[in-house]
């Protein structure tokens, strides 16, 4: 381990007070349990899914001898003859390494072809393996080689499984390596001065991941993956987006997550809040409010402005002409489950009620055929633009209106913030980092009552 990484780990592991809870610098088997800390676990035996290899161990310098969890990320669900190659020596086996199918030096292109529930590996010529049930596993032969799929390089392994709709392609890799391809996309490849925000983002993303990846690596999800690499979960783009500053933050915070009451928490985040974050029930249906996800103000006391004001998209406006307004009615009816959602002329568009954080709780459309009320969970999609991009946030007001014969012909909304508003404001975290606030304080602000501790 380099001196720089050791120093950064020491910073995180130094005895510190988080909300009245002391985090010990070294967690060892004989240490008494403290609030927010779990005892170290014995590394599990290698599972068949790992081909009999020893588990990856992280954090040895800190005394935390726990294996890094393995995450399964679905890259494509309906691939037709996906092509895989590598940057160096590699091979394709049947799952668990029972049968070696092909070996390559990195210049070959191999297709994974499907026939019903069977798979085979085929080369550019006439070479092909026999049809087998699979799944197939592509693996680099050494640490210098990496797999390539869909014009991207990936750490870890690629799994190919036959499904009713095509070939499922999954990237299997350690969580710490997965985060190297997540954090640069989620918060950007930032400068060294933003490191506190990057560290906070890394810990939040790791917590979010661990909530979806079981600690028992032998428990494979029935669908074959834990998350996709899209905005539905966390955007993941493999090795090509990795950045030295991001990797430094991943290494410096290795294995650290957020806990509340001793449990790892789900730690959502978003782009910018406009000055105040939101609670879960303000953004999503079927969820409960959590004590660590309460709305918090995000105003810089030095300037009186939001910390996230440096975001280029923190302030926005959206314009709707008559045709778009009519289509808004159709989408609102469709979202409400109407059997025959048809466009209608709009006479009035107004905010019906506001949430505790000041966001729109309902939008009321008064139309030529009656009144339609849009709940908070549907507002952003109902007010999407002509390309289908959802509204930046629900933190807005009606700015201007134009009318002809009692019908709205144009409306301008003016708003602040970008995203659902729950959890950590990413641009706010960047603003706080640039103001000299450390990562612990950033996390403590956006997730009140949480502490930082080891995951396993």
From TrEMBL:
The chain crosses the membrane at residues 12-34. The keyword Heme does not apply. GO terms for biological process: sporulation resulting in formation of a cellular spore. Residues 164-260 form the Sporulation stage II protein D amidase enhancer LytB N-terminal domain. InterPro entries: SpoIID/LytB (IPR013486), SpoIID/LytB_N (IPR013693). It comes from the Bacteria. Keywords: Membrane, Transmembrane, Transmembrane helix. This is Sporulation stage II protein D amidase enhancer LytB N-terminal domain-containing protein. The lineage of its organism: Bacteria, Pseudomonadati, Gemmatimonadota, Gemmatimonadia, Gemmatimonadales.
């Amino acid at each position: 381990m380099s001196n720089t990484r050791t120093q950064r780990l020491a910073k995180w592991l130094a005895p510190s007070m988080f909300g009245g809870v002391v985090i010990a610098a070294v967690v060892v088997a004989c240490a008494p349990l403290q609030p927010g800390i779990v005892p170290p676990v014995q590394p599990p035996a290698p599972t068949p899914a790992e081909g009999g290899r020893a588990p990856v161990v992280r954090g040895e310098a800190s005394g935390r001898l726990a294996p890094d969890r393995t995450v399964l990320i679905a890259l494509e669900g309906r691939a037709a003859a996906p092509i895989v190659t590598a940057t160096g020596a590699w091979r394709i086996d049947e799952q668990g390494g029972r049968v070696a199918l092909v070996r390559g030096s990195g210049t070959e292109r191999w297709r994974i072809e499907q026939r019903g529930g069977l798979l085979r590996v085929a080369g550019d010529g006439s070479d092909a393996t026999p049809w087998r049930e699979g799944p197939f596993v592509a693996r680099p032969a050494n640490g210098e080689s990496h797999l390539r799929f869909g014009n991207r390089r990936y750490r870890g392994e690629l799994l190919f499984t036959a499904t009713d709709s095509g070939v499922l392609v999954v990237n299997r890799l350690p969580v710490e390596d997965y985060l190297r391809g997540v954090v640069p996309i989620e918060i950007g490849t930032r400068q060294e001065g933003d490191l506190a925000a990057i560290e906070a983002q890394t810990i939040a993303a790791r917590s979010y991941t661990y909530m979806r990846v079981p600690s028992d690596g032998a428990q494979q999800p029935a669908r074959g993956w834990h998350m996709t690499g899209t905005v539905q979960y966390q955007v993941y783009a493999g090795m090509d987006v990795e950045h030295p500053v991001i990797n430094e933050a991943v290494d410096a915070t290795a294995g650290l997550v957020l806990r509340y009451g001793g449990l790892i928490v789900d730690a959502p985040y978003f782009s910018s809040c406009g000055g105040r974050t939101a609670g879960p029930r303000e953004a999503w249906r079927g969820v409960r409010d959590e004590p660590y996800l309460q709305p918090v103000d995000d105003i810089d006391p030095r300037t009186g402005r939001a910390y996230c004001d440096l975001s280029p998209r923190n302030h926005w406006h959206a314009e709707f002409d008559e045709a778009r307004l009519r289509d808004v009615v159709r989408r609102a009816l469709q979202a409400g489950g109407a059997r025959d959602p048809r466009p209608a002329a709009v006479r009035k568009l107004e905010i019906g009620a506001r949430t505790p954080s000041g966001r729109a709780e309902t939008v009321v459309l008064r139309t030529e055929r009656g009144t339609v009320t849009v709940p908070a969970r549907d507002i952003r999609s109902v007010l999407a633009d002509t390309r289908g991009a959802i509204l930046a946030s629900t933190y807005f007001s009606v700015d201007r209106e134009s009318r002809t014969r009692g019908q709205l012909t144009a409306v301008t909304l003016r708003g602040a913030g970008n995203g659902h508003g729950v959890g950590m404001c990413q641009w706010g975290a960047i603003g706080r980092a640039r103001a000299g606030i450390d990562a612990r304080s950033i996390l403590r602000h956006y997730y009140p009552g949480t502490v930082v501790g080891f995951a396993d």
